[in-house]
Amino acid sequence: MTSHTTPTRPGRRLIRELLLVAGLFAVYKAGRMLSTGRTDEAFRNAGRVWDAERALHLPGEGAVQRLLLHSDGVVHAANTYYAAVHFPATVLFLVWLYLRRPSHYLWTRRTLAVLTGAALALHLAFPLAPPRMLDAAGLVDTGQVYGPTVYRAAPAADTMANQFAAMPSLHFGWALMLALGMIAATRSRGRALWLLHPLATLLVIVGTANHYWADAIVATLLLGAALLMVPRPAARTGAPAVGNLPRPRRTAEPVAAVPLAVPAGGER
User: Fold this and answer.
1) What is the predicted pLDDT for the residue at 236?
2) How far is C-alpha 169 from the chain's CA centre?
3) Among 93, 95, 110, 164, which is most buried by a count of CB atoms within 10 Å?
4) pTM for this one?
5) Is 167:86 a contact under the CB 8 Å cutoff?
6) Are 147 and 225 in contact (CB under 8 A)?
7) CA 50 to CA 45: how far, in whole Å?
8) End-to-end distance of the chain based on CA atoms, in angstroms?
9) pLDDT of 5 higher than 90
10) How far is 129 from 132, CA to CA, in rounded Å?
């Protein structure tokens, strides 16, 4: 006799949620491919963003890249972080929340969905060539020179990714949501250290010349708007609510002792 094992109900729910998240991501990836052919517009927008950053006296992206280029190992690690950490870290984060903090999972999933939808709309409305393609920036395409890279050298030949979807940076937006979600869902004293993940992501996306500072700024603004739109989960407290406490059992009243009559003359 052969036995067939089927996933438990919680297991089926987890699989359903993973498929839902993967489906939303697939729709996002397919949707942003709609702006791949707008090369001239993407480079015009890149020039405008570069000029706007200089007018606002933002630090040059080249300052971060020069720090990475001091060592081949460091720049290779940055490229690997860009290529390999973004999506797996987000998936692990969502799985952990689903298993350990269900209410925070729903809040996070909805927030990421709003953020990603807004990002897709902006990708379609404002195609943007990354700084590694902009001659005025004078930056090195570290992925092509040092590897690894997730992009082809010619954007027109890249059928797997839209290289003109630079603004906003979902690398940074998702990393920032991961940090905020872990801070909200945990109570450890060192939970603020989760902010190192978006900080490292910011240095990586700028240092590898895949994004401008402005891409991270816009992602932060969109995430802030999404957080305002999605209701936060109820605050966790150390004690359960009074209404949820079990009622004490009623105990039987003690029976009063009945004195025994003692016959005259004392004990027999």
Assistant:
1) 57
2) 12
3) 164
4) 0.80
5) no
6) no
7) 9
8) 80
9) no
10) 8
Q: How far is 192 from 183, CA to CA, in rounded Å?
A: 6
Per residue in 35-58, pLDDT (tens digit) is: 667 889 999 999 999 999 999 999
The whole-number pLDDT of residue 245 equals 40
CA distance 25 to 128: 20
Phi, psi of 245, rounded to the nearest 5 degrees: -75, 140
Each residue of 57-86: pLDDT tens digit? 999 999 999 999 999 999 999 999 999 999
Q: In this structure, what DSSP letter does residue 174 have?
A: H
Q: Which residue has the tokens 């039987």?
A: 252
CA distances to 23, 58, 60, 68, 130 from 71, in Å: 39, 25, 20, 6, 23
Tokens of 243: 């209404």
Could you tell me if 128 and 52 are in contact, meaning their C-beta atoms sit under 8 angstroms apart?
no
The phi and psi torsions of 255 (rounded to 5 degrees) equal: -85, 130
What average pLDDT does range 115-124 have in this prediction? Answer: 92
Beta bridge partners of 128: 165
Rg for the chain (alpha carbons), in Å? 29
In our burial notation (b when 16+ CB lie closer than 10 A, e otherwise), range 80-119 reads ebbbebbeebbeebbeebbeebeebbbbbbebbbbbbbbb
Asked if 49 and 128 count as a contact pair (C-beta separation under 8 A), the reply is yes
**In the predicted model, what is the mean pLDDT of residues 204-224?**
98
Give the pLDDT of residue 234: 76
Distance CA 97, CA 106 (A): 9
